[in-house]
Amino acid sequence: QVQLIESGGGLVQAGDSLRLSCAASGRTFTNYHMGWFRQAPGKEREFVGGVSRSGGIAKYADSVKGRFTISRDDAKNTVYLQMNSLKPDDTAVYYCAATTIGVFLNPMLYNYWGQGTQVTVSS
Is 47 a residue whose pLDDT tops 90? Predict the structure, then answer.
């Protein structure tokens, strides 16, 4: 089992930045590829970005490319999502997830999920 706890969400204005953190405990963190997803009210959960277990590969959704950056600190068992130039459309609950398979866009391929953290961007 892997336990994931997200933090760092909040209410910000358009153009502001936030950094989300996801702290992992349980199994060996470096065994897992990590992903960030988000879900807005009435919408399906969507892939935001992911980083491979080596940290060498990062993927992003087109909607956040150039604004969001994923990184991981294996010494702290933590993955981060740096979000810059936030837009109202970025408003959602953000989840981190872990998988041993790879960095995939499909949430069904992730085994472990955090409880989510709310990000609200006002215009």
Answer: yes
